[in-house]
């Protein structure tokens, strides 16, 4: 019964998408309205995700069995077309298509220099084998449109879309790809020797613009009169109706039977091809690395792209700092309880504690098996010895001592990174959206304590806890929360001198993150019928996709304004795919420059293949996942790496998961568990500095002058210690897969 139902769904999806999947060669014509039947399918897919795990179909709309059989009925129909006397004409057409596809897609000769000879894995013959021609073309057209959707939203927010997929999309559209057409983020260059990173001079002048929120998005107006008439400046941004149409199309695509079958087979092929490549060329890659002077795994630049500032130290570091602060400041007033000031000695006495007796075990900040599938218990681990008072004192930017201890701890972590020389990090600080003064207070903390290091960049994380704030009447509706998050930044961009400390801080901020427990399901499907943020006044939090869209929409318009003013722009890099529905990954495929975790990609072959084709960066944290959502031996990190997804390693929360003070800790676990080759280590570490928001001069220093180019041409082995053979293999394989899509789309 369940299998028949799934087949019926696949058949209806196929009938809907087949006549309209290849819309046009022009990007502007891709955003058509989705009809009611497609929207109904998207709603049915969403409903299937809301079921409990114990009542889910054994094979869901997104899952594919390991053997992935083609339906016998489809194969029979495909065979009949070649023998039925009434289908001779169809047989002729299919034969021509087959003959055209027997030619190799790529030549065996490389088109670049300085790549040592290595053994290539070449596949000849009909490269659509395993699926029918109709299904092959249908899948390719759907994948093509999905890539154009991501490219559109990346360009809108000044986020990078790789050159190689962009070049193939232009070929499909019959256009010439030009390097100058590529949209890139705007970076803040590091201060030169002798320059003050906290300098408040040389800000651009006040433009006199007015910023106001309408329907959950901040718009910029020339003056108050224009704002009253809602006549905003021409800063492009996403359109809600178009976004919903694009999202519904992608929901239907990832549930489409032929596309699931095709992408599943391609991913299996990529895994097998890598295993053969590694078996044939591992020694040659090692020979390359041994010939490379000075550079090895340890002195390649590594950037921890996913680390939370409140847990950026290991537990021993925190314990030493607590004991040291007690020895030095025992009589200092550090806390206020019910209007009464308390010294540190009195605070610890009220908790029946003495720092001398504390140990790493009694500190109890390390996550273990007791936190598995318990996000609430994990959050409690931020409280040393279970005392929220100590968290406020040591791990908060806003307290009675103005976050002095927290700033000191972070500067000690930065000092360790500087001593290691080749290690960098992007700690995340929180903005909650509870009131508009949060930005001013955070910027004041940053400037007052001078929390700057050339080895640190900063990210802003926004916890999705609207339901808590609304339940306590801190905000009247969701729109007010968005306004508190984004309006102060718009105002500081329009007139930097109105809040110079915030303007200085924003120069060192690289991106925004969206964080919380993804396993919490809201039950709300984001659609054009959803209430506007100003109308969302219930206590329940909006869905993940709702959050993602409105954060992205504001970031995109903010980036338009900041680029116009010559300021740095921001990326959108949310937590995604750690738990919850795969539709989270779909929303971030459309909007996010890169994501953290991405575990649930293993549940959807279509999305996994799209993340590969678009080379969406994924910062994975196996040690974190092991204590929260997925056991270490089930982590898909190695599988994703073999298939060619752009994965990197990150620490997430060293205080909870790590025992050392350097970011090499997760590499050691990967080596022990997966026995990865040295070239794999180098590729993962090269992906680390490619993901964050470093300036062009920094990336040239880290990766070489051609870092923006794809493939071996962009790889400087003297800086990356990454074998050219491995880069050539990755580049050729990606081009092969993209060329398959080009052939399938242009078959007509």
UniProtKB/TrEMBL annotation:
InterPro entries: A/AMP_deam_AS (IPR006650), AMPD (IPR006329), Metal_Hydrolase (IPR032466). SUPFAM superfamilies: Metallo-dependent hydrolases (SSF51556). Signal peptide: none annotated. Its cofactor is Zn(2+). The keyword Metal-binding applies. Keywords: Hydrolase, Metal-binding, Nucleotide metabolism, Zinc. It is an enzyme of class 3 (hydrolase). Pathway: Purine metabolism; IMP biosynthesis via salvage pathway; IMP from AMP: step 1/1. One of its GO terms (molecular function) is AMP deaminase activity. Belongs to the metallo-dependent hydrolases superfamily. Adenosine and AMP deaminases family. This is AMP deaminase.
